[in-house]
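Quick one, tokens below:
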């Protein structure tokens, strides 16, 4: 009788252990479709704040939490970035050497959902001849707008650039900038 009870307990323990284990071949993938990516560059100058941005309409499917890598690659034509003012746009294009480097690149990979309504990913951002890599870059997710937003504080110096100075030094752009990445899910 004692042998039957111990076999029953071992059987129950094995059953509960196999129920809680998640085999890798049943690993759940969460497919998400991205409709567009918005990139905005924000900063300050001696005459006030500025925002320059572009929208990339890119349909791509991601398998969040997938075992295989999930990657979004986007090419940003630097001539598509608009500052809302023709002179400022031209100054930005001159600063980022648009004739030498007509495109910038963004790669978001290894997207994983975290418990606090956000994603962590690896962000690789290439502007001019500088490539910056950020592991565990956080994208905050808003369920109502189906949008994930990430903010990247940078300086022109990080990119090997000098901030623009105009009118003999009267107008100076500050070295600090912020690059916002917005992913819009379908």
């Amino acid at each position: 009788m004692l042998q039957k009870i111990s076999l029953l307990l071992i059987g129950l323990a094995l059953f509960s252990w196999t129920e809680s284990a998640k085999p890798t071949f049943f690993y759940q993938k969460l497919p998400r479709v991205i409709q567009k990516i918005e990139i905005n560059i924000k900063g300050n100058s001696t005459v006030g704040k500025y925002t320059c941005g572009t929208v990339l309409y890119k349909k791509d499917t991601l398998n969040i939490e997938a075992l295989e890598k999930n990657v979004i690659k986007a090419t940003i034509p630097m001539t598509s970035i608009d500052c809302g003012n023709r002179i400022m746009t031209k100054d930005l294009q001159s600063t980022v050497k648009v004739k030498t480097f007509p495109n910038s690149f963004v790669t978001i990979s290894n997207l994983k959902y975290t418990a606090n309504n956000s994603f962590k990913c690896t962000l690789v951002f290439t502007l001019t001849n500088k490539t910056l890599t950020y592991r565990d870059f956080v994208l905050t997710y808003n369920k109502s707008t189906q949008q994930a937003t990430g903010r990247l504080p940078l300086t022109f110096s990080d990119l090997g650039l000098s901030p623009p100075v105009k009118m003999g030094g009267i107008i100076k752009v500050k070295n600090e900038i912020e690059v916002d990445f917005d992913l819009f899910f379908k």
